[in-house]
Every structure is written in C-alpha cells, then in structure tokens.
Amino acid sequence: QALKYCREALQIAEEIGSPREICNVSMVLSDIYREMGDYKECEQTALRSWAADSVTHDVAVQTAKTLTVAYIHLGKKDKAEYFFRKYYDISAEGNDKSLHESLADMEVKYETEKKELRITSLEKERRLYIWLAVASVLLVFVSGVVLWQKIKNEKKKRQLAAANAVQDGEMGERERLASELHDRLGGTLSAVKSELNNTKDVSSISGKLDECIEEVRRITHNMMPLSLRFGIKAALEDFAAQFSKVRFHYFGEETKIGKRMEFVIYCCANELVTNSLRHSGAEYINLQLIQEENRIALMVQDDGRGFDQKSVKRGIGLKNIYDRVASCNGKIEIISAPGKGTETSIEFKPENI
Fold first, then answer.
1. CA-closest candidate to residue 270, choices 260, 282, 262
2. pLDDT on residue 324
3. Are 23 and 52 spatial neighbours (Cβ–Cβ below 8 Å)?
4. The dihedral of CA 310, 316, 317, 322: what is its sign?
C-alpha cells in the first residue's frame, strides 16, 4: 500500500513539475523499496533523488544512507563505500554547521545577556547614586535644621540667662537701695522730726518731714517691698491697699515659691496696675492671684478705655513684663479692645516654678 500511494504521489509531483516534491517522494519511495528488499529499484529511485538534490542536508544524508545500504546488498562495494563516505562527510559537515550555529547562537545569547546585565548594573548604579544624592540632601537638610535648632536653643538659653542675671542684679540692687533708704534716710528723717518736735514753730517743717518719710516709705516699698518676706500673697495685698480703685483676690492654697518667681509676679502686677491707673481711666481694677498645685496665675483686669492690640506697639513697661515672664518660661495673654477694658493673664507651670 505504501508503494502504491508513493507511486501516485510521484506521478502527481511530476505532473505539477515540482523538483522539490519529486526529490522528496523519490527519497521516500527508495526507502520503501529498501524495506521491501527490492534493492535494484531502491538504487534507481535513490539515484533519481540524488540527482535532483544532493545539497540539502537532510535529503542528501537520507539518500546517501539508502544508496549505501542498497549497494551493500547488491554487492557493489566501491559504490557502497563512495556513498558511505558521502553520508559520513555530509553528516559531519551538518554537525559542524549545527555546532557553529549553536556556538553562534550561544555567543549572541551570551553577548545579549552580558549587555542586559550591564544595563541592569548601570540602572542599579544609577538608582544607587540617586538614593545617595537624596540621602545626602536629606542629611544636609536635617543637619541644618538640627544645627539651626541648636543655635536657636543656645540663643534662647543665653537670653534667659542674661534676663535672669539682669533680674538678679536688679533684685539685689533694689534690696540694697530699699534697705539703705529705709534704714538710713528714713531713720535720719525720723530723728530730725523728733528733735524738731521739741522746738517751737516747727509745725510746717514737721509736716514736710512727714511727707518725706512717707515718700521714702513708698519708694522703698515699690523698689523691694518688705512684705515679700512674708510671701507673694501678703506683698500683693499690701500693694493693692495703696489704691482705692484696686481690689485684690486670692484663690488657692498658699505655698512658698522661689524668691525670683515672687519678684517676677510682684513686678508684673506692679507694672500692670500702674499702667491701668495711668492710662486706662479705669474706675475698677481687679488684681487676682491663683495658686494651685499645677500652676500659678496672675490676672489684672480693668474697666478702662482699652486699646486696639493691632495698632498699639509694646512700650518699655510691657516689654519688661514679657521679658520677665519669658525668663521663667511662663506665658502671657492680653485681651483688649477700644471701650471694653483690658485683661492680662500670666501663667507659670509647676516645673518652671
């Protein structure tokens, strides 16, 4: 059946005039004759295929192999040897070609992979440089921020130290002057008054001396009130008692606080009340001190004319108040509006007391 259909295929290939198909069918037909043992027909058909195409590797190898077998069985030793050598040479040539092609393919693949690895390496290197650049910028930025913050903190510390030193010096000087005015000048004036009382027509001089003594007492009290020796509450009560418009209110439990803190609170209260009396036209001034476990708060409230906070600049007195509060890490808030009076609140936390 194979022989029948292969002959029909050869006839069709000849009719359409296709050398390639004639060659392929002849090669298959020669294999059929070889399997059938008809080596003579096998030889003729294989030679036809060889004549049609002895160049194409697969066809030439198969045809040379078939002819070698046919000639062996036909006893044609020389021809069998000839086509065996053809079979060997074509096979070797094909193997060499395949090897070269494989090597070429491998080389191309190797070069391609090497380029891809190089590209990947360059890309990773580029990304690394980018990250290093970003990290360097961030490091410089963070270092700058830290340095700036450190400089700012150091500046603040120096300012606080300077403010504290000024206040300590001011407080010491006030104490010294108050003591000298009270002990020396006050005592001297009292002695003069006592002697003058023993003479005649000195009533007018005695009155003037009374005024001098009262003025000395007032000056010494304002510079460094002796009542601070008994605590801030007693000092503010004594201070408020000098003015008919001022009312002092105390809330909380009285506990002893630092000398500097008492001095700061007293100076702030003094300055705020004095400002209200001089400039606000107030009829009533509320001076209030709140002393609790977690805070100390001072409030001065008046019903005066008030002011526009946006248009009014800080004067020397108000600047001194802000500096004193800042020296103790406190905070100050002023609320005022034209015709609505003024309220000033100052607060200190226990860790700063």
1. 262
2. 84
3. yes
4. positive
